């Protein structure tokens, strides 16, 4: 093998001239035999994979998770049950609605997706920097995201659609209140909490289960951006959050989070005052206190953004033994949709890429497809069951059952109190925080053309807290809702 630092083609041949095309004579035209030119142009045309439909703009980093407390009484997941055990991980932070080139400092939830490379397979915890979400059934997700994207005629953002949808979907009230609070624009990715948001199920070695919610608490403290400063930075440095994360790690200022969980006994799900599987609601920490699990540290930047951040694929359906799904309807839809998005965007073999490849051995019968860059299973067994010693199922890792009953029908949640928790959040705020919240909402709602949409939305906040609705109505110059 040559030791020369030669530029080569993709098939490894040295390039003799990378400055000039091969032409017929001094003035050309260019010859089709210049395969190096053709390869460069053809590859350049294909350098962009489709961007993510949501969470397109993001930043990532490598790090580790260290278990600091033994929670084996709740889960048999090995990376959580041995104090001092370190598990490598990769995290991707993101905005939700904007395109790949959009500004970092907009008012938007932030994606908080963590891939744990455990000995039992990859575990993905794909959440946000908020403990709740706008909707609670995946069937509404495409419609919701359409309202956050661009109008099909004008190609402009459309506040009419945003507020029309929210006002007709009162389950969004809690998340919208968080979004327009100070926490709607984090100062950096380092200065925000992260949440699994959904309820999940933990199962211990004895097969005993509990319901669980995840909370990542930033050790850097919560810091948020002033609205006017955020708008200025969106123009001056639209990549501010991306830059801040990279620079902090580069200079050795490694960001860290403590991971806590809330644990709910399985039987409490039948009697808790809010449906514990409704992702638009939180569990009171007075009812289910935070239990410390471990610590996450980010200590290494990607070497290549495309290979590691853009091609990273996360799915809440990537479980390991000891962690399972709950009946949360929003989660149930995500279990399919996320991996399906990656099969479309990156390819059927996205899990064979280095950033997504498990450290655990992969033994399955999935073969072929575009971009199969590993050994494709070699000459090994390619079906199951078989009589030739191929990999077999592991009955001890079957998903644990939970009881279901009722009719097969399109049905909603039993609980429709969308107002108590949003009102509680408002009442927890200081007067300064409330004033900013009202100003943020009023500013966002003013462009809405129909007063009926504004009044309908004000009515929801009035139900949550009369002062909230009244002040918002006054800020918008509209009547205070009567008889709501």
TrEMBL record:
SUPFAM superfamilies in the cross-refs: Heme-dependent catalase-like
Keyword Oxidoreductase: yes
Catalytic activity: 2 H2O2 = O2 + 2 H2O
Catalase core domain: residues covered: 8-392
GO molecular function terms listed in the Swiss-Prot or TrEMBL record: catalase activity
Alphabetical list of SMART domains matching this protein: Catalase
EC number: 1.11.1.6
Chain positions covered by the region annotation Disordered: 1-22
Annotated keywords: Heme, Hydrogen peroxide, Iron, Metal-binding, Oxidoreductase, Peroxidase
Family: Belongs to the catalase family.
Name of this protein: Catalase
Species for this entry: Paenibacillus zeirhizosphaerae
């Amino acid at each position: 093998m040559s030791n020369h630092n030669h530029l080569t083609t993709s098939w490894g041949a040295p390039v003799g001239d990378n400055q000039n095309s091969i032409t017929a004579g001094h003035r050309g035209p260019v010859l089709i035999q210049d395969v190096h030119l053709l390869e460069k142009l053809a590859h350049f045309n294909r350098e962009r994979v489709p961007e993510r439909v949501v969470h397109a703009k993001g930043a990532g980093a490598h790090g580790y998770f260290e278990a600091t407390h033994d929670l084996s009484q709740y889960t048999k997941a090995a990376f959580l049950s041995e104090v001092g055990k370190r598990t490598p991980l990769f995290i991707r932070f993101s905005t939700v609605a904007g395109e790949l080139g959009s500004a970092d400092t907009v008012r938007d939830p932030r994606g908080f997706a963590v891939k744990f490379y455990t000995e039992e397979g990859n575990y993905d915890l794909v959440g946000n920097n908020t403990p709740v979400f706008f909707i609670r059934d995946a069937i509404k997700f495409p419609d919701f995201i359409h309202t956050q994207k661009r109008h099909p005629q004008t190609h402009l953002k459309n506040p009419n659609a945003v507020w029309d949808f929210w006002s007709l979907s009162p389950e969004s009230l809690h998340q919208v209140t968080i979004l327009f609070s100070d926490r709607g624009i984090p100062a950096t990715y380092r200065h925000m909490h992260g949440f699994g948001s959904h309820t999940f199920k933990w199962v211990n070695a004895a097969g005993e289960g509990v319901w669980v919610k995840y909370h990542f608490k930033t050790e850097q403290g919560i810091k948020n951006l002033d609205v006017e400063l955020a708008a200025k930075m969106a123009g001056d440095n639209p990549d501010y959050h991306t830059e801040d994360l990279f620079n902090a790690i580069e200079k050795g200022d490694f960001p860290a989070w403590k991971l806590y969980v809330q644990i709910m006994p399985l039987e409490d799900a039948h009697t808790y005052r809010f449906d514990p599987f409704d992702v638009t609601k939180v569990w009171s920490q007075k009812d289910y206190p935070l239990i410390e699990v471990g610590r996450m540290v980010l200590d290494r930047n990607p070497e290549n953004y495309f290979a590691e951040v853009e091609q990273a694929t996360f799915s809440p359906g990537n479980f390991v033994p000891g962690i399972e799904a709950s009946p949360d309807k929003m989660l149930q839809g995500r279990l399919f949709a996320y991996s399906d998005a990656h099969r479309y965007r990156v390819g059927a073999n996205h899990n064979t890429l280095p950033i997504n490849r498990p450290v655990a051995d992969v033994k399955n019968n999935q073969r072929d497809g575009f971009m199969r860059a590993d050994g494709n299973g070699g000459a090994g067994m390619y079906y199951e069951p078989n009589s030739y010693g191929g990999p077999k199922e592991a009955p001890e890792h079957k998903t644990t059952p939970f009881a279901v009953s009722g009719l097969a029908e399109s049905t909603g949640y039993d609980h429709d109190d969308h107002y108590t928790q949003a009102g509680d959040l408002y009442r927890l705020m200081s007067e300064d925080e409330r004033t900013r919240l009202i100003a943020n909402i009023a500013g966002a709602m003013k462009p809405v053309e129909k007063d009926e949409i504004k009044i309908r939305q004000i009515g929801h906040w009035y139900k949550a807290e009369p002062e909230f609705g009244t002040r918002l109505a006054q800020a918008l110059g509209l009547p205070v809702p009567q008889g709501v």
